[in-house]
Fold this sequence. Notes:
Layout: H1 12-30, H2 36-46, H3 51-79, H4 83-99, H5 106-118, H6 124-144, H7 152-173, H8 180-210, H9 219-241, H10 250-266, H11 274-289, H12 296-327
Helix pairs in contact: 1-2, 1-6, 2-6, 3-4, 3-5, 3-6, 4-5, 5-6, 7-8, 7-9, 7-10, 8-9, 9-12, 10-11, 11-12
Amino acid sequence: MKILPKDFKIGPRTVKTVIAASLAIIIANALHLEYATAAGIIAILSVGNTKKSTYQSGKNRLLNFLAAMIISVVLFSILGHHVLVFGLFLLIFIPYSAACGMSEGIAPNAVLVTHLLIATQITPQLLLNEFLLNFIAISLAFIVNLRMPNLQEELSEREKRVEHHFRDLFKRLSFIMNKQSEQAHFLHKVEDLEQYISESLALARTHMDNRFGDGGAGTSYDYFAMRATQVEIFHEIAEILLQIEVTVQKDQLTALNQLFKEIGKSYAKDNDGKALMQQVKETLDIYRASDLPKTREEFEARARLFQILQLIQTFIQIKRDYILESET
């Protein structure tokens, strides 16, 4: 019989939370603060997934603490220490915190206000006690998160994989049109790439938030954001292309296939797309110079081909804009 669930594991964040909570209580006790265990609870709530989220959460909790103390002191001083007054406090404090974007401070600061509720008198010493409980917990939460894993190596590897998959997909575009059995599989591969880029973007965001203040930490995030936009366009290109009947507009399809092959060959992170953009324009010139469609099928195929070329232009322009922004 299994005692622990299948997915049970003790991760780094759990260990950090345990350390922060334990130290918060120990320090609060050492300073002879009242309600020392509250520091441990606040520390548990304050350890975030990233360094940036922990910092922002802690800052908001401290600012929110000031508001909580001011509101509660005024209410308790005027209306007395009664549970209904505490309810009135929450009625004001919760929407105020939400409106100020500091919702994460509601629970811990409401707990601290209960200490004022049960006190016979609100003194400067009591207010200092509550501040120190908050400050100790938040400080320890930030300290334990100072050391975070460097994800840059993994992100660089993911960038290489994305480049490889894009090259492969562009090359495949040139021959899947007349292979009906492979078209569904091809679209699945595009969807897999979309998912992979989405996961990489989330990982890059985590890395950036753990390196906030580092000007170069957002490079991978910008890269995957650019690729996320491109893969959506690529998906649209593929779906339109597979609607075209291969028996019509053969010359135009040949020119388009050649363009796909060139993109597949030259697809790279540092390619500014200038040469590819010129080739797209040349392909458009070929289309414009060709005979007008004679049948409805040819007309629809020509319209879709023009749409694909426009999407390819957008696809390449996104990369050009990314390169230009990276150079500034």
